[in-house]
Amino acid sequence: MTGPRAVRPFYRPMRPRSRDEPHRAATPLELLFDLCFVVAVAQAATNLHHDVSEGHLRHAVTSYVMVFFAIWWSWMNFTWFASAYDTDDDVYRITTLVQISGALILAAGVPRAFTDGDFTIITYGYVVMRLAAVVQWSRAAAGDPAHRAAARRYAIGVTVVQLGWLLRLALPDGWGMATFVVLGLADLLVPAVAERPGMTPWHPGHIGERYGLFTLIVLGEAVLAISVAIQTGVDAGNHGLWSLAAAGAVIVFALWWLYFDRPTETPDRLPYSLVWGYGHYLIFAAVAAVGAGLTVVVDDERHLAHVSGTTAGYAVAIPIAVFLLTVWVLHVRRQQHGAVVVAYPVVAGLALLAPLGPARVQVLALLLVALVALTVVLRRRDDGAAPARTRPDVTTPHAKPAGADPT
């Protein structure tokens, strides 16, 4: 017989959660947050596809980089904050729902940003999300004296930068890119400055899981983009797209395998956590761009694209190369050794050559399958040799416990 259910309060002091908390998993609210963000990711990928197919390559890349930065940065900041301070009271839930509303506003502004270069709606949505984050950080400053200096720096830094984003809307169009770079760098500097007094108590294992879940979401968006593009082509009577569909599916499956091949080494110190967290911008953006690129290839096969077959191939090859090199830097070089460490940049280089020949997408799929096969073979070999090599460490008395606070 179970006891009475705990009643969730309307408000409770925002105390830090333990970095050693066992079995820490994503909450339903965090999952809802991710699912709402996929709307913005889908809008960015769809508009990237249309711009590339129409031949507006420079505009496509510039708009996509800027739009995806707003999506990724808002998601990332919520994720790290929630890892440290999720109180799950009603005020926290309401504030998070306001942040989600900002994400939906941002998503609504993506088409206008791509077609007209008008970032007004995106900026409003972004500011709504970030100012709601200021409320959260202010609560953390009040409820967590040990990390009050960091929380205050976050609240002040985010507020100042949001004022900058709003003022940017009043500047002439020619200032758009320069001010974006300045304000984007200012946003990136806020955590680096705020965490210096003492890192906020985010949970390393929880952060690793959250990033893995968002990777799955953008992979799912790529699968959806391929499916819709192939369905449209088949409905139009082009039944020769099945080979392309199979190759596209293999590419997505291979990207999933390579990212989740081994348990993620979660960050536990400030310099590496910044590199690891920021570096995932390239992983997320690249995976979503792969889906957009595959739809460009479908357009090319249907003679609807205003770009060459080689350019369409590079719309897939470039994001694949970016993904491989980023995973190599963040995961492979730190955790693995031998041939697989060399294989990632080699395959990335070969991927950039694939669009120059025939069957571009099929060749890219074969390259990724070869890389997956190599990682599987070498992992099995390493796992077979691991017990003899690691057995002495099992009883090491001074081993650092997982998730220990580095501060």
From TrEMBL:
Keyword Transmembrane among UniProt keywords: yes
TM annotation in the entry: 60-82, 94-115, 154-171, 177-194, 214-234, 240-260, 272-292, 312-330, 337-355, 361-379
Keywords: Membrane, Transmembrane, Transmembrane helix
Region (Disordered) residue spans: 385-407
Protein name: Low temperature requirement protein A
Organism lineage string: Bacteria, Bacillati, Actinomycetota, Actinomycetes, Micromonosporales
